[in-house]
Amino acid sequence: MKIKQRTDTRKAMALISPALLFLFLVQIYPIFDAFYLSLLKIKGRNSTFVGLTNYIHIFQNSDFWESSWLTALFTFGYLSLTLILAMLLALLLNRKLKFSSLYLILIFIPWILSPVVAGTMWRWLFQPAYGIIQTLFEPLIHKSLITDKAGAMMIIILAFLWQNLPLTTLLFLGGLQTISKEIFECASLDGVSGVQKFRFITLPLIKPILLINMIMGTIRGINVISIVMSITRGGPGRATGVWGLYLYQTAWQFGDFGSGAALGIIMFFVSVLLSLLYIRSVKLEPK
Amino acid sequence: MCFNKTALITITILILSVQAIFAGGSSDDATNEITIWTKYNSENPENNRDKWMKNTIDVYLEETGNSINNIFVPYDQINSKLNVAVSAGAEVPDLSYIDSQQQAFYISNATLMDITKLVKGSTWYDEISPRALGACTAPDGTVLAVPLNIGTRVSYVWSEAWPNGFPSTVSGFLTEAERLKGEGLYAMSFKASEKYGTEGLYYGLVKSFGGSYGDAEGKAAWANPETVKVLEFLRTLFAEGYVPEIDLAPGFDNERPFVQGDAVSFAGISWSYVYMNPLTAPDGTIIDKGSNSIATAVEMGKMDVAPYLAADGGEPVAALTSSALAIPEGAENIDGAHAFIDWLMNPSRNAECAEAFGGLPSIISAQSDARFQTPYWKKVAEITEKYGTAYPSLVDYDKALTKLAQTFEEILSNPELDIMESLRTAQQEINQ
């Protein structure tokens, strides 16, 4: 019996080893390589081992801390709005509405657009003097939003929210459709209100989906770059200079690959840490 | 059946072998091919530059039998991508477009080959403009690139809005700007955001006021009273609404107010005309001649070309840049690259290239070509000759100018910010 089990395990290992090898090559190895790169100072074709100097320089740089704050603000802003709106939309679509499939298709359009296309569109909407939304709001706000610090941050949050809302909604909708209608019917018979149903039935049952959306949303927020590049390029000043952009500039624009890799590693660990925190805080065991 | 199978296998092997032989053959042919990185799209040409690139590739092949593999790289990535390719030991082109003002960045990263011997030994060396060559020469005299043209910073002006001519000084400009504001016009539009903003009007003004971005060692040195004066002037422009807010937005939409006749001057560069069309004059006249719109407007007397604004009592500054070709470290077909440069530096080809790029030719004799005898080019040549100045030579060019642009934007968008303090902080961070 034991021999058979061992043979099966070997077979299984042999079968999954190509996939594991591929995973190692494209996922694990680059992380270690990036870490090694973060310990180097690269100049032209020469590199020197500098230990943790790149990390020290990053932590001593005020731009990094400003960028960290902006990334946190951006991620929190867009994620909280996305989760709330996606949940509301999913609840609405979960009802038996006419043309609900059509609504789903329409809602999904922003998700399939390239971030650069979406970003350019949003930039034009808010262009001072010529942008449609800017022109509409001009009499009320008397300033250009895209050249204003808070306004620029608001624009990139809205644009990213708009792009990420479809997938988040779809995941919530999938979760909602797995909940048995009988539970809600029983609750109705017991006189439970709509809000109570949401709080005590819907929310606990879709916790795994909420967790997935939170983790994916946070990772997307931390790594955002395309939409920021195509709308504000980090401006005005450094008002929208999130981590992704800071990394891009450091490594690619300024040619400091060591520091760029160090930033990448920091972003990676922050993403992992936050994901672990979410998993811990959202207990998945059914009561 | 068995014979058929064997025959099938034999035929397959033969076909594959023939293909391999031909593939080998084409690889041998590849020794005559050079790979070049440019910011010009020869595959899908959209403007004069793209069309020139496509035509050059065709003519070069026709005349020499050598081919060019042009890789299109976006304008804001070409310098950094070249550096990345060299640093990473990746495949590099045999020749690459570079912006001459980036040379300090290339020097510090050892990205480019020393081509001093190649340039000095060439037949066209005696004919090259010292200004253009100077823009491609390192402080130690090493030539790093071959300049194709000279791009000059100039102001484009809708003539009728300035009955007394375009002002030469900042105080004269402010007086006129107030009058134009009353007429519902912006006095000027210019790029006020990102790194490119600091290369344009900002730099011209700082130099004219007697200031500088960097010191002799290439370190940041912009925290000076002259830069403060420039920023005070710029704050007035935005606060009084003499310039549109779109100037502070990312991208190049700052050209639109001028192109549409809402702004009556534009601080640009000699090649801005390539992109500014169709034009609508403030009186509503539409000039739609493709990339010749500006030249047509100048000939019609609707538009004029003037130097940048200067400090009161100071001289205007026209920063000069060159679109250049360089051979990166690790390039394989150096002879091929050299041959192409030699072919391109023929006076008539240089004139053709310069016209397409929107600069004056780097070969002096080519400057007398008929194409550069139009009112527009004569004015550009005059400004170049009188006020031409080199760009700042900063070691961390992109990093320093990006930081400076961010600081300028912050100072302009926040009137409460202490100008000198902000400049000093940014300077210290770059020099760390």
Topology, number of strands of chain B:
14
Mean pLDDT reading of chain A: 89
The whole-angstrom Rg of chain A is 24 Å
**Low-pLDDT stretches of chain A:** none
Compute the CA-based radius of gyration of chain B.
25 Å
Outline of chain A, from the CA principal axes?
Answer: flat
**Secondary-structure element sequence of chain A?**
HEEHHHHHHHHHHHH
Q: What can be said about the biggest beta sheet of chain B?
A: 7 strands, mixed
Oligomeric state: heterodimer
What characteristics describe this protein?
heterodimer, A: 287 residues, mainly alpha, two-stranded antiparallel ribbon, flat, B: 432 residues, alpha/beta, 7-stranded mixed β-sheet, 5-stranded mixed β-sheet, 44% helix
Structural topology:
The complex is a heterodimer of chains A (287) and B (432).
Chain A: H1 2-37, E1 40-43, E2 46-49, H2 53-60, H3 62-94, H4 100-112, H5 115-125, H6 132-141, H7 149-177, H8 181-189, H9 194-205, H10 207-222, H11 226-231, H12 243-253, H13 257-281
Helix pairs in contact in A: 1-13, 2-13, 3-7, 3-10, 4-7, 5-7, 7-10, 10-13, 12-13
Chain B: H1 2-29, E1 33-38, H2 48-64, E2 67-72, H3 78-87, E3 95-99, H4 103-109, H5 116-120, H6 130-135, E4 146-147, E5 149-158, H7 170-182, E6 189-190, H8 194-199, H9 201-208, H10 225-239, H11 256-259, E7 265-269, E8 279-280, E9 286-287, H12 293-300, E10 303-306, E11 318-321, E12 323-326, H13 334-344, H14 347-357, E13 360-361, H15 375-387, E14 388-390, H16 397-413, H17 419-431
Parallel strand pairs in B: 1-2, 1-3, 6-7, 11-14
Antiparallel strand pairs in B: 3-12, 4-12, 5-7, 5-10, 5-11, 5-13, 8-9
